């Protein structure tokens, strides 16, 4: 997706530790028009699947997942990182480690929202080591739902997340694949 790649190059900042900061358009301040185009692209890529729900992890995955769900005409479910007074039991839960935050979180989805006849599409903002996706796959397994695909806005292809999904045999579509972040420069996979 050329528009996305252009924004990464123009507005992204490479930080030490192979971190790409894109908080001015993707995961803090959100460019709503770009998110709409991202959602439309994911919907186009997965249009032939029989997706019944889009699933993501709060909070950075919500914007692209929401626009994808709108374009597919299905509900969005986001796995919550923090329990609240209204989300206490009857949950599917998995543990997820965040590299950028250096912390593990339990993510949860209310069992009422995933049924064995659901076919889900997982959408997330980043794929690096694959921890968030692995957590969502664990929840999908617990719920006995079919995972029809995984859509990633930005994939750091030089990290292990891509390989984990490939080994699981699940279709992966990434809109921008980064080959390296060496010397503070973003290089894309051809």
What does the model show?
By secondary structure, the protein is of the alpha/beta class. It is 29% helix and 33% strand. The strands form three sheets. A six-stranded mixed beta sheet has the order 4-3-7-8-9-10, with helices on both faces. Helix 2 packs across helix 3. The mean pLDDT is 94.
* Beta strand %: 25-35%
Structure annotation, total helices: 5
Taking the alpha carbons of the first and last residues, their distance comes to 12 Å
Structural class: alpha/beta
Helix-strand pattern, N to C?
HEEHEHEEEEHEHEE
Can you tell me the overall shape?
A: globular
Main sheet: strand order:
4-3-7-8-9-10
Roughly how much helix do the residues carry, as a percent range? 25-40%
Taking Cα atoms only, what radius of gyration do you get, to the nearest Å? Answer: 16 Å
Mean pLDDT: 94
Give a count of the beta strands, DSSP E runs of length 2 or more. Answer: 10
Major sheet attributes: 6 strands, mixed
Please tag this protein with its features.
190 residues, alpha/beta, 33% strand, two-stranded antiparallel sheet, globular, six-stranded mixed β-sheet, 10 strands
Would you spell out the secondary-structure blueprint of this structure?
Layout: H1 2-11, E1 13-15, E2 19-21, H2 32-45, E3 53-57, H3 62-72, E4 76-79, E5 91-98, E6 103-110, E7 119-127, H4 131-143, E8 146-156, H5 161-168, E9 172-180, E10 187-188
Parallel strand pairs: 3-4, 3-7, 7-8, 8-9
Antiparallel strand pairs: 1-2, 5-6, 9-10
Helix pairs in contact: 2-3
């Amino acid at each position: 997706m050329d528009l996305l790649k252009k924004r990464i190059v123009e507005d992204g900042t490479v930080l030490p530790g192979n971190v790409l900061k894109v908080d001015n358009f993707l995961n803090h301040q959100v460019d709503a028009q770009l998110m709409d185009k991202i959602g439309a692209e994911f919907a186009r890529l997965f249009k032939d699947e029989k997706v019944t729900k889009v699933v993501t992890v709060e909070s950075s995955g919500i914007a692209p997942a929401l626009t994808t769900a709108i374009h597919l005409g299905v509900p969005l479910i986001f796995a919550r990182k923090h329990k609240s007074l209204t989300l206490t039991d009857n949950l599917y839960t998995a543990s997820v480690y965040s590299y950028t935050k250096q912390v593990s979180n339990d993510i949860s989805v209310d069992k009422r929202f995933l049924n064995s006849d659901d076919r889900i599409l997982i959408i997330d903002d980043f794929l690096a080591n694959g921890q968030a996706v692995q957590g969502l796959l664990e929840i999908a397994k617990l719920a006995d739902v079919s995972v029809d695909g995984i859509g990633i806005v930005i994939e750091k292809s030089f990290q292990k997340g891509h390989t984990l999904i490939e080994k699981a045999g699940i279709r992966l579509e990434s809109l921008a694949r980064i080959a390296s972040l060496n010397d503070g420069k973003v290089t894309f996979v051809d």
